[in-house]
Amino acid sequence: MASAQLHWEEVRVGDELEGFTLEITPRRLFLQVSGSQDWYPLHFDPAFARKAGHSDLFVNTGFLQAALVRVITDWMGDDGFLRKLRFEMRRQQRQGDTMVCRGKVAAKHERDGDGIVEIEVWAENEREGVTTPGMATVALPRRSGGPG
Amino acid sequence: MAEQYDIAAVREKYIGFETATARGRYLVEYDAIRRHCHMVDDNNPLFLDPDYARKTAHESVICPPSGWLALYFASLGPWPAVFEPLFPIVPTPGKRIVNMSQEVEWSTRIKAGDHLSVRRRIADVYQKAVSLDAEAVWIVAEATISNQRDETVCVIRNTMLTHRTPDEQEQATGNKR
After folding, report:
1. Contact residues, chain A, for B41 at CB < 8 Å
2. Cα–Cα distance between B39 and B58 in angstroms, integer?
3. Which of residues 102-121 of B touch A (CB under 8 A)?
4. Mind telling me how many Å the CA of A31 is from chain B's nearest CA?
5. At A27, phi and psi to the nearest 5?
6. Angle at A35 between CA A33 and CA A38, to 5 degrees
7. Which of A27, B60, B115, B138 could form a disulfide with B111 if both were Cys (CB 3.0 to 4.6 A apart)?
8. Residues B75-124 pLDDT 10s
9. Quick check: helix, strand or coil at residue B4?
C-alpha cells in the first residue's frame, strides 16, 4: 500500500518501523526461487544443504534483502531514498520458522542540507533470535521542500 | 596426494582482478520486479502499478532498492542462469558457497525500462576457519552497477564464504595420512 509521505522533521530517534511477519513455508521457498532467480540448491534442496554440512536448507540473501528493504520502503514512502544498506547473515531462517522483520530509528542528522536517518533493521525468529542484523541510511524529504 | 592450497599465491594473483563491463540482456522489466516483490508480500504500488507510479514524482515504476535485483538485471537475467560468475575465477579448496554479508550504496534509483551494466572486482580473498571448514576461503567481491546513461546506480559489496563438504574434508584428511 502507498503510505503518506514521511518527512525528516517527523522522525524521532527510537521510533519503531512497523515491519511484518512471514511464515517460511514450502510455498514461500518456491516464491524465493522465483523472486530471486537463485538456482543454487542450498536454498531449495535439503539433501544438498545437509551434504554441505548444514542442518537444513535456509533462505537466500536475495530474499532477506528484499524483506529488509521492504521494512524500510514501507516506512519511508515514495520520496524517501535508501542510500545504504548493510546486513549480515549470522544465523539462518529455515522452513518452519516465522520470520519477523523490524526496524528502529538509531539516529538522525543533516548532511549537506539533506535530512538523513540511520536505521537499525533486522530479521529474527523464535529459534535463533536475530538472524540478520542490518544498518540502513535513508534520506527523507524535508517539510521545507528541501532535498531528501 | 592432495595439492596444497596456496592462499598467498591466490591473494597475489586475484585481489584487484576486475572484469570487463557486461550489460544485462534485458531492460529492467515489470514482471521480474513483481516476482521479487511478491516473494516477501511487498505490495508497494510504486514498484508494481504503472498507473500509480506515473502519477508520482518519479513518473515510472521504480525497482525496489535491492542490490540483488540490480545485479539480476545487470547480469543474472539471461537464461541459462549463472549464479555467480566470479566463483570459477578464484580457485578455492571447496565449491560450496554461503553469502555472509552484503553492503549496497545507492547513488540513484532504477526505473522500469533502464538498461543496467555491471563491472566486478575482487576486493579481498583470505582464509579463515569456520565450524563448517577449517580451511574456508572468504571472497569479498564488489559489483558496480551503472545505467544506460553511464551513471553509477549502486555499488554492491558481498562477503562470501566458500567451503568444502564434510565428505570432501574427510577425503582430504585421508589423503594427507
Report:
1. 20, 22, 70
2. 24
3. 102-106, 109
4. 5
5. -60, -40
6. 40
7. B60
8. 765 555 555 555 568 999 998 888 999 999 999 999 999 999 999 999 99
9. coil
